[in-house]
Amino acid sequence: MSEEAVVGLAAVTVLGVLQQAYFSLQVIYARRKYSVSPPATAGPPEFERIFRAQANCSEYFPIFIAVLWTSGVFFSQGLSSVCGLLYLYGRLQYFHGYSESAQRRLAPLYFSAQVLWVLVGFSLLGVFLSFCRVYLKVDLLRGLASALGLV
């Protein structure tokens, strides 16, 4: 696989890692600001919202990376990379919204969840089409294009 085939996915992955580092730093700053020493996770509501926002983003990050790469390799690097950027934007909005109030997390949470489901759908479709082409020797996309008179 060439670099061109995955450069978009790699760029989104690096941005995601930097975003996770940013969220972690925000927890460190909040610990200092609200005097919550490790390993404590309870404190003022302002601290707990920042802590939960970071923890929630970290919990979903492996799922995001898995479907980003599966979708990008088996479906479309371009579409997957754009979805990845949208997901990261949604997670940034989620983090900042949750840091301000629990209610402000909801719209960005729903947005990022929808983008994640799109990536899951792209992943499933891409793997299914590749499975059919490689193991069943049936190219469903070529067949569909032929049936529609596009080829």
List the helices and strands and how they pair.
Layout: H1 3-34, H2 45-74, H3 77-100, H4 106-135, H5 140-147
Low-confidence stretches: none
Dominant shape: elongated
End-to-end Cα distance: 27 Å
Please indicate the percent range of residues in DSSP E strands (runs of 2 or more).
under 5%
**What number is the mean pLDDT?**
94
Number of strands: 0
Structural class: mainly alpha
Helix content: over 70%
**Helix and strand run:** HHHHH
Q: What is the rounded Rg?
A: 20 Å
Please, what is the oligomeric state?
single chain
Largest sheet: none
Question: In summary, what is this structure?
Answer:
With 151 residues, the protein is mostly helical. The longest helix has 32 residues. 82% of the residues lie in helices and 0% in strands.
Can you put this structure into words, describing what you see?
With 151 residues, the protein is an all-alpha fold. Helix content is 82%, strand content 0%. The protein contains 5 helices and no strands.
What features would you highlight for this structure?
single chain; 151 residues; mainly alpha; 82% helix; 0% strand
